[in-house]
Amino acid sequence: MKLTVGKNMALLVLAALLGLALLTALEQYLMGKVYEGANNANINAVPSLKILGELRRNFQEISTQAGRLDYGADMAERNRVEERLLVALDNVSNAIRAYETDGCAGTICFADEVDKADLEKEKPVWRQYQVILDKMLQEKGSSEQSVAKAHQLLLELDPVSDKMLKLIDEHIDYNIVIAKRFSDEAEVIKRNAIVLTLIICGLMLLVIAVIGYWTTRSILGQLGGEPSQAAEIAARLAEGDLASDIQLKAGDQSSLMARIKLLTESLEHLANRAYAIGQGDLSQEVKLASSKDRLGIAINEMIRMLRIARAEDERRNWLKDGYSEVSAALTGDLTTEQLADAAIGLIGRYLDAGRGVFYLYRDAEQRLDLIGSYMYTERNNLGASFALGQGAVGQVARERKPIILEVSDDAAAPIVTGTMLALPRFTYTYPLLHEKELVGVIELSSFEHFDERKLEYLSNITGMLASFLFAAEQRVHIRKLLAASEESEREMRAQSEQLRESNARMEEQQQQLQQQAEELQQTNAQMEEAQQLLRQQTEELQQTNAQMEESQQQLEQQNQELEEAKRQQEAKARQLDQASKYKSEFLANMSHELRTPLNSIILLSKMMVSSENGEVRGEAQKWAQVIHRSGEDLLRLINDVLDLSKVEAGRMDVHLATLSSHDLCFELQGMFEHLARDKGLDFVIDDQLRRDFVSDPDKLSQILRNLLTNAIKFTRQGSVTFRLSHHPDTALPIRLSVRDTGIGISEDKKGVIFEAFQQADGSTSREFGGTGLGLTISLRFAQMLGGTIELESKPGEGSEFIVWLPESAAASREAASLTPPPRLEMARDDRDALQPGDRAVLLIDDDPVFGQMLLTMNRRLGYKTLLAGTGGEGLELAERHQPVGILLDLGLPDMDGTQVLHELKTRQALAAIPVYIVSARDRDEALLQQGAIGFLRKPASDKLLAAAEAELLRAVGGQGGGILVVERGGIGRDEVAELVGETGGAVLGVGPDADWPALLRESRCRLAIIDLGAAPVADSVAVAAALREADPAISLVFYAGQSPDDEDEAALRAYSDCIIVKTPHAGQRLLENVERFLRDVPRQQAALKAAPAAAGSRLLEGRSILVVDDDPRNLFVVTAALERHGAKLSSAVNGRRALEFLEQQRPDLVLMDIMMPEMDGYQAIAAIRANQAWVDLPVVAITAKALPAERERILATGADDYLSKPVDYDVLVAKAAQWCEGRGK
């Protein structure tokens, strides 16, 4: 009988399993025996010896203490001896009781009768010993008789003690013999088990060898060749190599090799067809080998789907081109007639129509008038106008539905060309609806019936035409309203001029009448005959006066109306001022109310993400990361709203400085290049400006970050370009543009996207999220800088945002209405000559003479120098150039040096730079506690300055080393060394089992690249944990052959946020991250030394901190964060309770919330500073109000420092450690 491969293997496996089962059963039996012998020793001999050892030790203690009883000594010493005696007595009694009850694994400790007899011998001796000792202890007197009696009892006690010790020693010796016996028995059983195991193993191997030989011969026959040959051919097939030369034995049709040959020939045929498909040949289908040929059926189905997809793409492109052509042609300031002619002509040509007409709906006349046509021949005004319901055009207008007709008679209007006159076969009449309102009708006629594609185009294009037509009518309406408004204005001006002329004439007439009245009075007596004339003139004068009084009343009424309008305007202005005040108060309160819960969310989620003892793992840690990121996003949104409000309230200051276009491009490239690459976009920076200009670095950077972030977010494919150029002929010569190939912005949305909380797509189903604040803030900032932002965009083609800025500082200051502190003429420093790797020292001092002296000295010593005359300029230079050290003067023109030091040590990007104080003020130890490494008082010599700079360089020293590569086969040391070149120093390759502490001590590597390879992710996590334990400051990069799943990714991100997956761009990403880490590691190490809040550090061990806050959430998170670092926390819910606590205890630090009931933080801080006992107690305020005036008020009240909510976890711990350390010193 010929057995199959499966049956042969089953027979072999069955024999192996039987032998293994027999061996396992024997091993189980023998192991049980060995365990029984060893267990006897574990549960009896070992506990017995332990109890007897305790018994002997305590008895020996009793003997020793009994000999120390001295009745002549003081009572205190005697009481201590008696206490030790009583404790030892209890221990001996407990040991005897445990031995005979449950001392050995819960049972009695008797191994046999001899063991029991030994204990029985000890018990009466012990009772005798107790009786004598009790008598000794009862002798309380100090008389000679009592002392003598006690000595006599002690002499009686010695032989009993010796006997008891002898019995205990014999008991211990016997238990040792018992333990040895148990061990010997277990050893004999173990030797027997080994011998039997070896015999059975030998027999089992012999049987398996015989069956294996038989099985191998059977398998080779069914393979038709050597297995290695079959494996080689299969490997080539797996690699796609179908060219295989298989030699078969004569008549071999059923072996595996024969079947493989048939398979390769079939795959060769399918591969040729697939290649043709890839070249675009979809004309032929694959010939199926059988009805079960799934691969052939699948390829034929793929050909069918590709044909359908190609047809669908052609249809979509045709429709898209048609829409774009119409949209481009109709964009602009066109009249309705121009728009109608252009639209019907384009549509008629695109659809190959024979004729087309365009009707405008007149709502007032309920009539449709012809305003545009295509190849239309007028016939006695037939078709020039239609009423609702009249003809197909009127019926379509009434029903708001299209009508498609097939013409079968000669009544239709013919289509006329230069060579023919023919009747159309089909007509297509469609309504133009804008927001369900009729604006017009179009009709096309054709010789052929429109297919589905043309009908879809015609159906969709009508909506676009309606929108353009509506917009054109609105433009006409707006022009009419504007003209009417201008005409009304001209008439009002004319009436006003006439009124002024009438007033002037009436005044002149009144003067003439008064003069005439005087003349008449003088000549009254002499001219009686003129009396009648005088009466007549008097009557005329009265009539004129009445008219003047009426005009005067009209003027007074107009004046009253103007006064009333003025009062209303003033009332509205007061209401606006009041509303602005309420808005400011609302923003301050909302800042507190929003930041308070955010403080809990961000701090707790940060603690969960960085869980040290593994309390949060896997999916929960991923959730915590999502919560933390969401909290940070909400905080950024709150800051945007506050920025916008500060701009609108005029409380946003502008700090002008000189900017380099090169530095600006370098900053933005490092910030956005990887974001664009991750989305598959090209990020292009074109610096045509290549010069310095004056602006506010922070605000300009925020403008460009907003624009670039939007460009990348709204671009699916293509590129994002940032271009800088100079246009000297314009009022704003600096042009910064951000252009993308994204979705674009329609004309009707261009005017609203710069308004707060507005977006181009504000619907609930929009694809892109956001608040609509970024562009609003950007435009406000640009206006504050004296410039503006323009927008050029076409839907579907992309957008270009252009920032225009002034070039000079004067224009920027005038636009911002600022008077910044004057900048002093400083010596020309080395900022333009800085090269990568240069050691630059920054001097922040307004003394140009001192700056020149330092510049000369540093050039002699080989250092580069940066000079800043103000604190603001110093902070800007520190941010931009990252010097190796800073020399800081305290007396600066724009801000105090202590404030500059605070900014340097609280900004994350600057905290690692060492600062040395050089000032004419007296030495202040508080500055050293705040982070300065030294203090030098002016005037200072060259030697003292050189020593200070040397100390700065030593503070950043020890940062050498290179890159460590943990190799697992994915990426190696040579690849990394070739990639980074000399950027990261030496590259060291090691395996995953190295001695990490010793290796890091010797190599001083700053960065480790961990290759995940094919090993489980848990192994790489273990390596990361070991590296981080050996050096908490080392940076980690994970390199993976494929993307890890969510759980593995969460485990890796607990140690590093840099996980590089092997892709065509992986090398570039790895190089960028290596450079980033090597650039940031020195700052991280310095920050770690200054205030390390890293995992495992307990910076606040033994420190006492009082937290004052009325919010239980804040109390919880702050307490939890600080207790993890060893602090002892106390709490109070308001300022009054805090003062009561301070009356009882004095902590090392007080963390004080500002907004609290009964007594707020301001009142509490003032009360603390008013008490001389607490005048030096460190107080750090915690405030949720983010407005600038809050900081000055807090520090003026008496707080030593402050933190803004939501409080960063690391900053909280570092700040607490800083002030506790300062108090400790």
TrEMBL record:
What range(s) does the Histidine kinase domain occupy?
589-809
GO MF annotation terms: phosphorelay sensor kinase activity
Per the record, which residues fall in region Disordered?
485-521, 543-577
For this protein, the record's Gene3D superfamilies field holds: 1.10.287.130, 3.30.450.40, 3.40.50.2300, Histidine kinase-like ATPase, C-terminal domain
Q: Among the entry's GO cellular component annotations, what is one?
A: membrane
Query: Which residue windows are transmembrane per the record?
Result: 193-214
Descriptive protein name: Virulence sensor protein BvgS
